[in-house]
Amino acid sequence: MAIMALLPIITAPDPRLKRKSKPVAKVDGRVRKLMADMLETMYDSNGIGLSAPQVGILERVVVVDCAREGEKPQPIKLANPEIVWESDETVVCSEGCLSLPEQYADVERPAAVRLRYLDEQNEIRELDAKGLLATCIQHEIDHLDGVLFVDHISALKRGIILRKLSKTKRLKSPVPA
Ligand code: NI
């Protein structure tokens, strides 16, 4: 039995959230452990998705679970996810992010996507997603390219959110600098 661990989630502004993550060469024991730890960390924070860069690891690994409250968990673990098709139809969804705590904004994205990825056994798979799952997966894949949900909204709204976060971070800093 693997022992899981909670990972520290990094928050904006942090330069690591703006970097492009590297593909994993192979889904091996190390990557499986990372996926398990990320899932545990995501559940612990009441998130529906988490990407490796959000725990400071610049590798293309994502976990999501969009099951509703009361439903049985539907964890999905993705390595090197790639969107291979997206619908012309779009939807607007109010998005938040564990790396931008307590900030929300309406983001427009394709309503449905198909992705190709490596699963936990290092097998190539495809997945069709729509609704909340499609939005969540696109949000997480964005993280792998250093893109945050606020990068999809106006510079004005983005500025307001990022200034708020900088301020909160300064107030929380244990050592005044
Ligand atoms: Ni996020």
Question: What are its keywords?
Answer:
single chain, 177 residues, alpha+beta, Peptide Deformylase, five-stranded antiparallel sheet, 7 strands, 29% strand, binds nickel (II) ion
What's the structural blueprint in terms of helices and strands?
Layout: H1 29-44, E1 49-51, E2 61-64, E3 76-86, E4 90-97, E5 100-110, E6 112-118, E7 124-130, H2 131-144, H3 155-172
Antiparallel strand pairs: 1-2, 2-3, 3-6, 4-5, 6-7
Could you characterize what this model shows?
The chain is of the alpha+beta class and 177 residues long. The protein has a single domain, classed as Alpha-Beta Complex (Peptide Deformylase). It has 3 helices and 7 strands. It has helices at 29-44, 131-144, 155-172; strands spanning 49-51, 61-64, 76-86, 90-97, 100-110, 112-118, 124-130. The strands form 2 sheets. A 5-stranded antiparallel sheet has the order 1-2-3-6-7. The radius of gyration is 16 Å and the shape is globular. It starts with 28 loop residues before the first helix and ends in a 5-residue tail after the last helix. The structure holds nickel (II) ion. Residues 97-99, 139, 143 line the site of nickel (II) ion (NI).
